[in-house]
Specification:
147 residues, mainly alpha, 5 helices, 0% strand
Length: 147
């Protein structure tokens, strides 16, 4: 990733790529709290949180590398890079991929699954990581006219 994608001040692209996915467990926890049909016991939370933190950070890095950075490169190439577009496209793609993965990779037929939970979890995690990336990278909220 080239430094020219980002504003000149602030963290380097390597630091951004390292830091942004570390926030994924916060967004995954929020999504889990919204999508669970019933509250978890303290014992369940003690077992679930460490696993969820590790898995969600790993998924955050995958999402950043394969969704956020390619979308950012395409928007930059089209001279339309701004935080709103980057967050929108990353959220839509992330929610779609998370849903497709959970539906077709879960071992159950797609018609027997809830669509809301994976859409919300994928969208929330993608939006969260991309928003953190935009804030840390000082990507402008709206693109400047380059004409």
């Amino acid at each position: 990733m080239s430094r020219r994608f980002l504003q000149s001040e602030g963290p380097s692209p390597d630091e951004l790529a390292f830091a942004a996915p570390l926030f994924t467990p916060l967004f995954a926890l929020l999504g889990l709290g919204v999508t669970l049909p019933e509250p978890l016991t303290l014992f369940d939370l003690a077992l679930l949180l460490p696993v969820m933190a590790i898995v969600s950070v790993f998924i955050g890095y995958i999402g950043l590398l394969f969704i956020c950075i390619p979308v950012m490169a395409l928007l930059f190439w089209a001279r339309r890079l701004d935080a709103v577009r980057l967050c929108f496209f990353s959220t839509v793609i992330g929610a779609g991929l998370w849903t497709a993965t959970s539906m077709f990779g879960g071992g159950r037929p797609p018609e027997s699954q809830d669509l809301f939970s994976p859409l919300l979890m994928g969208g929330l995690c993608s939006l969260g990581v991309t928003a953190v990336f935009c804030v840390l990278g000082r990507i402008p909220l709206q693109a400047r006219d380059s004409q």
